[in-house]
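Sequence, please.
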């Protein structure tokens, strides 16, 4: 590779006066001709167009024409997301990636880092199967459609916060189902919150009055009441109607009674099964 002009720059001492001898300038003229030839050899330029720049090619030790990243010879770059048809970013423009809820971005040098966190996905309905829904996954549980509108939920938990999950057809449990059980604390006044669980248990160590709250129309709950080692604890149920009137709990030590309550939107309708024994 040529090194010019400082390394081989010719003198003009024999070229700057009318009395100079051309013979004495021959060496300087030859040096500058060699410099010009070195420049010609280093550049391979033929018919440049608008927007081109010189780019060095190590394979042939030459500068050659190439397109400029900001010139008109470069077309726009299009970024396409899952929910869009694409955004064109023209040369010289800035493409910004901004974080959203649970997502942050950071740039270090030429590295873009996008960090996300686990998110809850809420769907008001899954319709049009199989054309609209074939699979939903969060890398653990997933929903698949067999093509006939039957959905299979695998390794997943369906949860609702304050809303209702509507099942408008026959629900079949191939293996069984499990109900949550809420342990109550014995006291003179026991509050049974129907929104916490369908089944409640308590071992009575004193006479108690049960008050039921947060039941919705069509809901039922069960209260499993066990007498302590002393027994003879009494129990009453606020606003609950029983067949033939309020029941009397079994009084033997360790006796178990089960009270079931159904709410029809107006009345709390109760029933009691008593003295469970082996």
């Amino acid at each position: 590779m040529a090194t010019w002009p400082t390394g081989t720059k010719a003198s003009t001492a024999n070229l700057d006066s009318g009395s100079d001898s051309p013979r004495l300038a021959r060496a300087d003229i030859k040096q500058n001709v060699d410099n010009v030839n070195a420049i010609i050899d280093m550049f391979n330029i033929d018919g440049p167009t608008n927007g081109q720049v010189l780019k060095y090619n190590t394979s042939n030790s030459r500068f050659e024409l190439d397109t400029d990243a900001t010139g008109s010879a470069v077309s726009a770059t299009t970024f396409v997301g899952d929910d869009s048809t694409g955004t064109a970013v023209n040369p010289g423009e800035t493409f910004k990636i901004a974080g959203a809820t649970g997502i942050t971005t950071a740039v270090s040098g030429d590295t873009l880092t996008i960090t996300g966190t686990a998110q809850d996905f809420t769907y008001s309905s899954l319709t049009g199967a199989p054309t609209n829904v074939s699979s939903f996954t969060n890398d653990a549980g997933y929903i698949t459609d067999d093509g006939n509108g039957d959905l299979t939920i695998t390794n997943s938990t369906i949860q609702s916060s304050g809303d209702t999950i509507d099942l408008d057809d026959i629900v079949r449990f191939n293996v069984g189902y499990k109900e949550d059980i809420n342990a109550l604390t014995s006291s003179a006044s026991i509050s049974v919150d129907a929104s916490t669980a369908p089944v409640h248990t308590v071992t009575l160590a004193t006479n108690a009055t049960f008050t039921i709250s947060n039941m919705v129309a069509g809901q039922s709950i069960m209260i499993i009441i066990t007498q302590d080692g002393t027994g003879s604890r009494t129990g009453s149920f606020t606003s609950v109607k029983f067949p033939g009137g309020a029941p009397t709990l079994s009084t033997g030590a360790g006796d178990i009674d089960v009270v079931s309550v159904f709410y029809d939107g107006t009345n709390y309708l109760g029933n009691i099964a008593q003295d469970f024994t082996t």
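The radius of gyration is 43 Å.
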